[in-house]
Amino acid sequence: MEHRTVQIKNVSRLVDAGGALMRRAPGMPGMGLVWGETGYGKSTAVAWFVNRMHGVYVRALAVWSPAAMLTTIARELELAPKGSCARIVEACAQKLSETNRPLFIDEADYVIEKKVMTETLRDLHDLTGVPVVLVGMAGIQRAIRARQQLTGRLAQWVEMQPCDLEDARMLADELLDVRVGQALLGRLHERTKGSARLLVVGLSRIEANAKARGMKSIDAGDWKLGDEFFWGDAPKPKSAQKQRSDTSLKVVSHGEGGDGA
Ligand SMILES: Nc1ncnc2c1ncn2[C@@H]1O[C@H](COP(=O)(O)OP(=O)(O)OP(=O)(O)O)[C@@H](O)[C@H]1O
Ligand SMILES: [Mg+2]
């Protein structure tokens, strides 16, 4: 299986929004928000875009303080972070202005929780004019509405979507050495509910299965009912997740992934 970024629709969504932020008229707000369920391909799409635009990518951590966030951004900008937070903000802002590199914060849910960090990102945006894009889980778009200084600056909102069958076909054709028939792909797609992560895991299982049997192409008829695509389950809406955690013992002991997909 190949490891590369396939141009599924979520990648195009990000490229369109990121491009619009980069090309916006002077003085227009330039913050962006990307959100979606786990496994929909946010980090992959962002990493690909950042690489292409020579952007700055940092991933927030649960334990981040404002100083930790600024130190990480400074290092990505090849600065040696020294002195107070205020001095590091100034140094980062200067470097961002000089280089005009867009700044992406992945796992931004951790940042949104803390007012000082959110406002520091807003400061970096205001001081430099470079796009500042927050990437987070589904739900961040609601949390961010409470931060009015941010919402006015958000010029692009991108909701990552589940992969459709066309995306699944692209992933299968571009990542695998074996051909996956449409019926088997359809079954996998349905089982994953469009999660890119689960599609890729399932495809790798299919490829391994076909290779072990010396097959160059594989379809639903070759896939035994007991064969699993992956372990676990596709992401569920929030309310369902809550119910699931309430009955977690039951779920674990029965293993939802073992339904033979
Ligand atoms: N465009 C793509 N091309 C190839 N593989 C992809 C693509 N998008 C996602 N994947 C696969 O799906 C996996 C999960 O994607 P990714 O980590 O980007 O999701 P995410 O939305 O950031 O999830 P989380 O919210 O859990 O961080 C990747 O490790 C990769 O295997
Ligand atoms: Mg991610």
Give a structural overview.
- The protein is of the alpha/beta class and 261 residues long.
- The chain folds into two domains: 9-159, P-loop containing nucleotide triphosphate hydrolases (Rossmann fold), CATH 3.40.50.300; 165-259, Orthogonal Bundle (Helicase, Ruva Protein, domain 3).
- The chain is built from 13 helices and seven strands.
- A five-stranded parallel β-sheet has the order 2-3-4-1-5, sandwiched between helices. A two-stranded parallel sheet has the order 6-7.
- Helix 1 crosses helix 2 and helix 3 runs parallel beside helix 4.
- The radius of gyration is 21 Å and the shape is elongated.
- The two termini are 21 Å apart.
- Residues 240-261 have low confidence and may be disordered.
Q: What are the key terms here?
A:
binds magnesium ion; 5-stranded parallel beta sheet; two-stranded parallel sheet; 261 residues; Helicase, Ruva Protein, domain 3; 11% strand; binds adenosine-5'-triphosphate; 52% helix; alpha/beta; Rossmann fold; 13 helices
Largest sheet: 5 strands, parallel
The name of the CATH architecture of the largest domain is: 3-Layer(aba) Sandwich
- Could you say which small molecules are bound to this protein? adenosine-5'-triphosphate, magnesium ion
How much helix is in the residues? 40-55%
User: What fraction of the residues are assigned to beta strands by DSSP?
Assistant: 5-15%
Number of domains: 2
Shape: elongated
- How many alpha or pi helices? 13
